[in-house]
Automatic annotation (TrEMBL), chain A:
Family annotation (InterPro entries): Fe-S_L-Ser (IPR051318), MmgE/PrpD_sf (IPR036148), Ser_deHydtase-like_asu (IPR005130), Ser_deHydtase_asu (IPR004642)
GO molecular function: 4 iron, 4 sulfur cluster binding; L-serine ammonia-lyase activity; metal ion binding
Cofactor: [4Fe-4S] cluster
A Pfam entry, by short name: SDH_alpha
Organism of origin: Eubacterium ramulus ATCC 29099
Superkingdom to which the source organism belongs: Bacteria
Pathways involved: Carbohydrate biosynthesis; gluconeogenesis
Top-level taxonomy: Bacteria, Bacillati, Bacillota, Clostridia, Eubacteriales
Protein name from the UniProt record: L-serine dehydratase
SUPFAM superfamilies from the UniProt entry: 2-methylcitrate dehydratase PrpD
From TrEMBL, chain B:
Pathway annotation from the record: Carbohydrate biosynthesis; gluconeogenesis
Reactions catalysed: L-serine = pyruvate + NH4(+)
Record protein name field: L-serine deaminase
Keyword Lyase tagged: yes
GO process annotations (BP): gluconeogenesis
A Pfam family reported for this protein in Swiss-Prot or TrEMBL: ACT
Lineage, uppermost ranks: Bacteria, Bacillati, Bacillota, Clostridia, Eubacteriales
PANTHER family: L-SERINE DEHYDRATASE (PTHR30182), L-SERINE DEHYDRATASE, BETA CHAIN-RELATED (PTHR30182:SF12)
GO molecular function terms listed in the Swiss-Prot or TrEMBL record: 4 iron, 4 sulfur cluster binding; L-serine ammonia-lyase activity; metal ion binding
Length: 301, 233
């Protein structure tokens, strides 16, 4: 596609931030208002739709089943292990981070097992955002309304990344999936903690910077290894990035520059590292064993 | 104010494709996007499918198996949405409905890595060949219909008009839309050669009433009118 003109909305994190400041509004309102004007939805209809997304995330988390296994027979059950470990009080990461990790792994496993999830922004990265938001709702005094507003912030950041870079592993590598999800979650968490527009954008930038260059190398072509565990990594990265930004630390590279470099890095990655399973972890000896196991299981079925 | 904006990969995305859709896993591009591809192709045929030939390209060919891509495209052809638990059983359901399904490899040049060419035969003999790509998240791009470049997202009501390249066809489309109070979001016009085959792809902000489409099909020079009401309609 080439050039297309637009008359409303925001196209960069800088514009999103400036509009919030100029209009004296919260970032989530700018994102919602753009949705209203671009998609002809009322404020109520838009908010209701986002609420449905949040509730679907919650249902997916609550309906996790540690006994399920994926098509390959290899993914599943790790979320239950983490839950047990956290319950034993052995958590070395603190309660909140422990919970974030647990929920991220659970959601990633549910996805691999063809359960119903919310792509945010993609299915492979579906654990990052709910892990951070659902854990926050449980451990901090936030209302569902607050969480839905935070989802808008995440969606706004994701929209900018989609427009200026990519959200697809096949064109940008895993940085475009787990990296984008992590940036979205970091911004959302910063907004929940009362961060201003600048803090939100820098939380997102700091999270994305940590993920730059991450390749998409699914073993046996499945959204299992390394995708599921990277959800936990992306979620924790979001929390630490939000905390850095909330403490007043700023990304030396402007947030939109980080997104630009993500696009460039994605374009420079060879095809073997972009969801083709022809490089990275996907071509290791262990991956061949995993593939054989999953093929055998398919034939047996 | 009008801003000309250089885009990265996609424009006009719906916010609920960034957070959303609610879908059955495991892949937004290879499962949910694939469901949508089949869904759009089926709607573009406009009648129940007797035979579907699905040709896969790039990453769809390489990693589609583990993502349930084939099952997902067939589920979409059957009219299923991305959150349908029956996606995993689509082959069996297609067989029950007497839909013949075959897969192959698409040989394309410079196509998006997640592309499929879907060739459909309908029960009354209608045929269509659609080239669609899954461009990230669950968004798709309908790249070609019957060999002619198109390039629309399927997210809004879309009108595809095949006509003879002669005066009056474009104004017939635009005046009908104006009368029905439908606003045009984007419009693309192609022709094979002067006075020969032409195609218009018109993306709209509102749904187009059926009588407008029926009227258009009867206009002189218009050969075929295809209407897709949008993925969320």
């Amino acid at each position: 596609m080439g050039y297309r003109y637009m008359t409303a909305g925001y196209h960069t994190l800088r514009e999103l931030q400036e509009q919030a400041v100029l209009q004296n509004r919260e970032v989530w309102e700018i994102v919602r208002n753009a949705d209203m004007s671009e998609n002809e939805r009322s404020a109520e209809a838009s908010f209701e739709k986002m609420t449905i997304m949040y509730q679907a995330m919650k249902q997916a988390d609550e309906s996790y089943n540690g006994a399920l296994r994926s098509a390959s027979g290899r993914a599943g059950g790790d979320g239950a292990k983490l839950q047990q470990y956290n319950a034993q009080g052995k958590n070395i990461c603190g309660d909140f981070i422990g919970k974030v990790m647990e929920k991220a792994i659970k959601m990633g496993e549910s996805n691999a097992c063809m359960r119903r999830i919310v792509a945010a922004p993609t299915a492979g990265s579906c654990g990052v955002l709910p892990a951070v938001l659902l854990s926050y709702e449980e451990d901090f005094s936030a209302t569902q309304e607050d969480l839905v507003k935070a989802l808008y912030v995440a969606a706004g950041i994701g929209t900018v990344i989609a427009e200026n870079a990519s959200l697809a592993g096949a064109s940008g590598g895993c940085q475009a999936e787990i990296g984008s999800a992590s940036a979205m979650a970091a911004g959302a968490l910063a907004s929940l903690q009362g961060g201003d527009a600048e803090t939100i954008m820098h939380a997102a930038a700091l999270a994305l910077k940590n993920m730059l260059g991450l390749v998409c190398d699914p073993v046996a072509g499945l959204v299992e290894v390394p995708c599921i565990k990277r959800n936990s990594c992306g979620a924790v990265n979001a929390v630490t990035s939000a905390q850095l930004a909330l403490a007043g630390i700023r990304s030396a590279i402007a947030p939109d520059d980080v997104i630009d470099s993500m696009r460039r890095t994605g374009n420079q990655l060879p095809a073997c590292l972009k969801e083709t399973s022809e490089g990275g972890l996907a071509v290791t000896e262990s991956a061949r064993v995993y593939q054989r196991h999953s093929n055998k299981r398919r034939i047996e079925k | 104010m009008i801003i000309f904006w250089k885009i990265g990969e996609i424009t006009d995305m719906d916010l609920f494709d960034i957070v959303g859709p609610i879908m059955v896993g495991p892949s937004s591009s290879h499962t949910a996007g694939a469901v949508r591809m089949g869904y759009v192709a089926g709607k573009l045929l406009g009648e129940p499918i007797q035979k579907a030939e699905i040709l896969l390209y790039g990453s769809f060919l390489a990693t589609g198996e583990g993502h349930g891509t084939r099952k997902a495209i067939v589920a979409g052809l059957l009219g299923m949405q991305t959150d349908d638990y029956q996606i995993a059983d689509s082959f069996e359901i297609a067989a029950q409905r007497g839909m013949e399904v075959a897969f192959g490899e698409a040989r394309l040049e410079e196509a998006h890595p997640n592309t499929a060419v879907i060739c459909l035969n309908g029960i009354s003999g209608k045929q269509t060949e659609v080239q669609i790509s899954s461009i990230g998240g669950s968004r798709i791009s309908i790249d070609k219909i019957d060999g002619i470049n198109t390039g629309f997202s399927g997210e809004c009501p879309t009108l595809i008009v095949h006509n003879i390249d002669q005066p009056g066809c474009i104004v017939a489309v635009t005046s009908m839309l104006a009368k029905k109070n439908v606003n045009i979001a984007t419009m693309q016009v192609y022709r094979s050669a002067k006075g020969q085959q032409a195609v218009m792809v018109v993306e709209c902000d509102q749904l187009i009433p059926e009588d407008g489409i029926v009227w258009l099909a009867g206009v002189e020079g218009v050969q075929k009118v295809t209407y897709f009401p949008g993925l969320t309609a």
